[in-house]
Structures are given as C-alpha cells and as structure tokens.
Amino acid sequence: MDKRPHVCRNCGSICPIMVTLDGERVVKVEGDFDAPLYRGYTCPKGRAIPTEHHNPRRLLHSLKRLPDGSRIPISSEQLVEEIAERLERIIDAHGPQSVAAYLGNGVASQPAAGGMMISMLAAIGSRMMFSSGTIDQPGLVIANALHGHWQGGRVHPDQWDTYLMVGGNPVVSKQHLPQNPAWSLKMLEEGGTQMIVIDPRYTETARRAAVHLQAIPGEDPTVLAGLIHLIFEMRGVNEDFLNENTQGAATLREAVSGFTPDYVCARAGLEQEQLIAAARILIAADRGDSALGVGASMATRGTLSSYLALCIQSLRGFWAREGEQISRPKVLTPRRDWRAQPGAPFPAWGFGLQTSVRGLQQTLAGMPCAALPGLMTTDAPDRIRAFFNHGGAYYSWPDTENTVKALSELDLHVMHDVEIAGTSQYADYIIATYDQLETPAISGLNENVGDIHPGYDWHEPYAFYRPALLDPPEGSDLMEGWQLYFRVAQKLGLDLSFIQYGGDGGQATIPFDMAREPNSDEMIEMMCQGSAVPLDQIKQHPHGAIFEEARDWVKPREANCAARLQLADPVMLEQLAEVRGEDSRARTKVGDDYPFQLVCRRIQETTNSGIKPEGILKSGYNPLWMNPLDMDRLELNDGDEVELSSRYGAIPAFVEHEETLREGVVAMTHGFGAKPSSDYDPRRDGSNINLLLSWDDDPDPYHGMPRMSAVAVAIKVKAAVS
Ligand SMILES: Nc1nc2c(c(=O)[nH]1)N[C@H]1C(S)=C(S)[C@@H](COP(=O)(O)OP(=O)(O)OC[C@H]3O[C@@H](n4cnc5c(=O)[nH]c(N)nc54)[C@H](O)[C@@H]3O)O[C@H]1N2
Ligand SMILES: Nc1nc2c(c(=O)[nH]1)N[C@H]1C(S)=C(S)[C@@H](COP(=O)(O)OP(=O)(O)OC[C@H]3O[C@@H](n4cnc5c(=O)[nH]c(N)nc54)[C@H](O)[C@@H]3O)O[C@H]1N2
Ligand code: SF4
Ligand SMILES: [Mo]
C-alpha cells in the first residue's frame, strides 16, 4: 500500500488529503495532517472519494448520440473531427455568436479547461461565455463595482472584532471559511470575534453567533437597511474614514430613514432588542468584515443586499488599513499593489452584449445564465446553436422543463462528464473526462476565484501544487476539458492564445504553438507565469506550504488618490426606496393558497448536482425540512410524503423535522431528482426543486436571476409512512 498526498476538489475548500492506494485501487482518503491550515480536516464527500473514483457508471469512452436517441462510443479522434465539422457549419450559417460555452462547478478538477474554453470562444469571435456565477451570487461583483473597491482589501480575520454573516452557512458550505470551518469559528469566538448571523434557520454557524437574527426569508435588504439606520442614529459612523474615503453618506442616511427598528422588526419578524444588539456590536467593533451567502442572493435583490453590506463596512471603516496584513495574499498568481485607498466605482452593466431575451445583458458578473434557455430557443438573430457545457443545468437552472426543452433544441450540445448525468443525458456528445485524482491541482485558481468572491482563497500565503495521482484506467480514451478545445481549434485552423489575468487587472495573451499540443503540466506552468512565488518552489512542498516571502502588507495611500467609495448609488437607492414603498406581505407572495416559504440550503453530503457516491446519503433523497410545530398542524411525521407545490410546479417530497427553522419556513436542497435511464423513484432519487422555480419570478433587472429562495409554496399531505 502506498499513501500519497493530493487535494479534494469536491468543493471550493480544496482540502489536502492523503490517499491510500493499492496499485490502481483507491482504498482510503483521509485528512493530511502534514498540510498547513486545515488541521487534517475532511468532510464525508472527501472521504467518499474511493467510492466516487470507482464509480461503476464511469465513462471510459466518449459517447455520441444518434438521431434515435441511442448512444455509441466514439474515439477522441473521431469526436474532434465531427465536432469541428459541425461547428464550422454552424458558424458559417449563423455566425460566431451562435456558439456559446458554460462553465460550472464541473470544471473544478480541470484547471486549464476554463482558460482554453475562453480562448477558443475568443478565437471564434463569440462573446457568448456564460457561467454558473450568474445563478449564484452575481450581486457580489456588481455591488462591488457600484460601491467601489477598497484597494487594501478586506480586514484580516485575526483582527475581526465582528463578523456579519448574511444567508450563509460555512460549517456546511465552507464558503467564507474554507479551511476547517467549525474549528475556524471556534477560534474566532475564542479570539473575541462577535458574530452576527442573519438566517431563517438556527444553523450550525448561527450557534456560534453573539446575535442570531432569524428573519423572515427575503428580508435581508430590510434588515441591513435597519442596521445602517441604527448605525447613523446611534452615532456609530467612523467619521474619519467617511470623510476621507466616501461620498453620499447624507443621501444614504436619508434613504434608510424609513427603516426604523419598529418598521424593520415588524416586517422581518424580529425583536427590536436583537436588532439593536446587532447594531451595538457593529458600532463597538473597530475591525470587522461581512459575508454574504447564497441565501441573501437567491431570495431576490442580492445585489442590493451585497451593496448595503459594503456600505456597513464603509460606514464603520472595516477595510484593511496601512501597514496591516493582506487578507488574501497572492502566491501562485502575480504579486499585487495593495493600497489603503478607495478605488472609484465603475460601471457594472451597459458595456457589453445585450441579448434579445427580456432585455438581459452582460454585466460585470458575466453573461446572464438567465438568458441561456431563451437564447437556445429564440427566433432572434442571437440564437445559440452550439453549446459547450462544463456544468450542470438540469438540476441547477430554474424551470427544469424549460431547460430540457432548450437543450433539446440545440444543433450541437457538447458536454464533459464522468458519467451520463442529469444534464449530459441531453448532450449530442459526452466527452468522457478525467477523474479528480487523474489531473494535477494548483492553488492559483482559487486565488483567482477569491478576487471575484471573498468567500474563497486563503488568508495566509499558502500554496500547493499536486501532480496527477493516477493514470486514467487502462483501455480508456479520455480528454481533459482543455484538450477538446485545443484539438477542435487545431482542426478549424484557429490560433489560440492563453489569456492570463495579471495582478492588477491587466491581461496578457500568450499565443500557443498550434502545431504541438502541450501537456497538462505545461498548461499549468503557463497559468502560473509571473506568480509571486515561482511554481518550481511550490512544487518542492508535497503537502503545500505557507510561503513567508509572499506575505504582504497594505501600502500607504498615494498622494494623488482622489477616488471615493459611493454610498449613494442611484440604482441601489432606488431599489431601496421600492423596498420601503412596497406592501411587504404581497411581495413575499405568501397567502392562503401558498402559506409556506421555501428556502435554499446545502447539506454536508453533496455539492450541488455532483456525484453522490453510493452510501453517502442516509436516505438517498433530499428531505423537506419543517419546523415540528408546522408538522403537527398538518399532522405530519418524519418520512411522510407530501406534494410540495409553487405557482410554477409541484414535486413529491418527504418531510423531516428541524427545530431550528423559523415557523412557516421550509427548506430543501437542490441538485436532486430524476436520474437518467432509471425509473424515477423520488424516495430514492429525491426531487428537483428547480421544477418549482421560474425565470419570470421577480427576476433581477440586470443579471436576471429570479427568486430561488423565499419561494411561496403549499404542502399537500399525500400518504403516511407505513
Ligand atoms: N434551486 C436552486 N438552484 C440552484 C442553487 C440553489 O441553491 N437552489 N444553487 C445555484 C448555485 S450557487 C450554483 S453554483 C449552481 C451550480 O450549477 P453548476 O455549476 O452548473 O452545476 P453543478 O450541479 O455543480 O454541475 C456539476 C455537474 O457538472 C458535470 N460535469 C461537467 N464537467 C465535469 C467534469 O469535468 N468532471 C465532473 N466530475 N463532472 C463534470 C457533472 O454532470 C456534474 O454533475 O446551481 C445553482 N442552482
Ligand atoms: N456541502 C456543500 N458545500 C457546498 C455546496 C454544496 O452544495 N454542498 N455548494 C457550493 C456552492 S456552489 C456555493 S455557492 C456555496 C454556498 O454557500 P452558502 O451560501 O453558505 O450556502 P448554504 O449552506 O446553502 O447557506 C445558505 C443559507 O441561507 C439561508 N437562507 C435561505 N434563504 C434566506 C434568506 O432569504 N435570507 C437569509 N438571510 N438567509 C437565507 C439558508 O437557511 C442557509 O443556511 O457552497 C458551496 N459549498
Ligand atoms: S470540505 Fe469536503 S468536499 Fe470540500 S474539499 Fe474538503 S473534503 Fe472535499
Ligand atoms: Mo454556487
């Protein structure tokens, strides 16, 4: 037996692991105690990698779908030939914009795939590049632009007096506290950080909070505006920071004046003492940070919630100061100039492609996923006909029936996968791809993600490189994501360039030698060019390491810096006025016909629609969690089947009690439902909650993300468990 270090890529934490191998057999996965920061942490998904790797449904050859719906194996060579030919025909007939690509979480274990996909689209001349980022938390990026970006970065956790967590649960998701979250929270608490959690569930994370605001779902803008109101009223603003670095404070103050504690608490279902206690913590804190999870994004108005959280940070001066340690030091990406000064706000929309679908357009968060199904079926000139897919859609996009219809109207749908899954069952070609133990891994990618989303990356100058641990199975014919794009481009005679995003927002393009296909490690070298610490040095540490030479501190403000953070963005304040002016009850859409609110939540055992290895789930399905008092009212017991319906659809569900839920709120995890080529049994496969959602339900006017949490639902009792 052989024990070797690798990393788990089943979620964004990328925990270091030790893999026990018996020849080609993966016997065991456990935490790597020789790696820094994680203290040997793994979760059930990491420990299930042996079962995941030896997936009996694993594809060892790519598949082609025939007109009658059946599938035949196809060699990589033939596949590249056919895809190139079909692509050329589509581009000739309909132009480059008819080719689109989608990056989702599926790409996590293929470090070079995203870059090569972007590069191929650029060479074709298409700007139709989409990602799951626009059905996740697009508001984070947009709000950051509207508010302006602090060039010194966020406050390092060692200094947090307070931490405001809105609609996120890192103990399960790891987002915002990616390294051993339960331990991190304990350390923060012991170090004196007072956490405020806004969540309709008393989550594992909320249990560590000094104040838990168990607000009615969808009321985050109300609660955050209420906190801002109190910060002003209780003379809690950091005047020095405000005067030097911001504009619009008086306008913001006026805009939140109607969000008095009695208004906010009546509307959001809170006690006034709690709201005031939260405001007191924020005001007493000298240093702090805020973190928004998907709850705040899915329940509509995610951009506004993100913006208001940034305003709280600026009102309190919660940004890294001169001489303080950088909270996300760069190691395997280029060094950066961190400055204790504001960056001016910049446009978040209005600069890119405008689609024919409901006026949706490209924003700073990218092309809107919300437009994708419409673009696949439209008669307008911007119809998408060829689609390269590296994520889920069937289990992840709202309105599953519409997703299926849209995918089936494509002329060419190419999807990478390790098995025939919910989405790949609709592909014309399924590219059998490498498993996560068969590809190299680098930390640099997560540094890039951390630039966009503050919930990822490391607070210490940590980096790793792990070579592929295993060769692909004998007799297999697989392609790593990037290889497909490179080879298709070769066939089409396209010149691809690697696009590298530089440290301070710059871009460099490095042309590929199209006559010779690189290997994955050469690709990685390319990606790491110019990194703060050279890749060679990082390779010398098989367990990853902290690289002291990359530790960095915030530099002083430049003398000529005149930029100011914007506390009164007109679009945001207009949305806030709409919130204050509306009938809040009507906005929730809850009533006698749909009396409950369904919220999103994640579970430890699965990541979105990713592989669910045999035995990892207790019941197999995704339960419908309910407060026991609500269950009593409907005379329901654990395991009873109900029909869960919204205005847009109905699914079977099996209830399970959860005392921690606010009454009237029910919760269910996405990523479940009917599986390909098996008779659907909801008690085994779970239900797809996206059947209950619609793109038309309160969509964001810019990125188009609809209501995906705080959804009004009804529960009809079906049958008791025998
Ligand atoms: N109702 C509801 N919907 C949601 C959410 C929610 O909370 N509620 N959350 C949203 C969020 S935050 C996100 S990020 C999206 C997720 O949306 P996506 O990222 O689009 O979807 P995933 O389900 O993570 O997709 C994973 C799938 O990609 C495929 N895949 C593609 N390439 C590969 C590969 O190279 N290797 C492997 N192993 N698989 C590959 C596999 O089929 C795998 O199951 O879902 C969103 N949808
Ligand atoms: N185990 C596991 N880890 C994952 C994933 C996974 O599927 N499983 N997915 C990954 C992905 S793609 C992402 S984006 C991250 C997401 O990471 P998180 O944002 O931490 O996701 P969740 O754990 O779903 O936490 C969302 C919380 O929001 C609460 N909530 C729901 N509606 C509302 C609301 O209206 N207001 C407020 N304030 N709260 C609300 C829910 O009760 C829940 O506790 O996790 C990543 N990590
Ligand atoms: S938290 Fe779990 S799934 Fe995520 S990287 Fe770590 S072991 Fe893997
Ligand atoms: Mo996500």
Question: How does this model look, in words?
Answer:
The structure is a single chain. This protein is of the alpha/beta class and 722 residues long. The chain has four domains: 1-54, ADC-like domains (N-terminal domain of TfIIb); 57-136 and 325-339 and 349-551, Rossmann fold (3-Layer(aba) Sandwich), CATH 3.40.50; 155-319 and 565-570, Dimethylsulfoxide Reductase, domain 2; 584-717, Barwin-like endoglucanases (Beta Barrel). 29% of the residues lie in helices and 19% in strands. The protein has 24 helices and 30 strands. Strands 5-4-17-16-15-6-7 form a seven-stranded mixed β-sheet, with helices on one face. A six-stranded mixed β-sheet has the order 26-28-27-30-25-29. A four-stranded parallel β-sheet has the order 10-9-8-12. A hairpin with an 8-residue loop joins β1 (2-7) and β2 (16-22). It is globular and about 70 Å long. The relative contact order is 0.16. The model has no long low-confidence stretch (mean pLDDT 96). Bound molecules: ligand MGD (2 copies), iron/sulfur cluster and molybdenum atom (MO). One ligand MGD is lined by residues 11-12, 105, 136, 166-170, 172-175, 198-201, 203, 217-218, 220, 293-296, 299, 599-602, 604, 606-608, 667, 709-710.
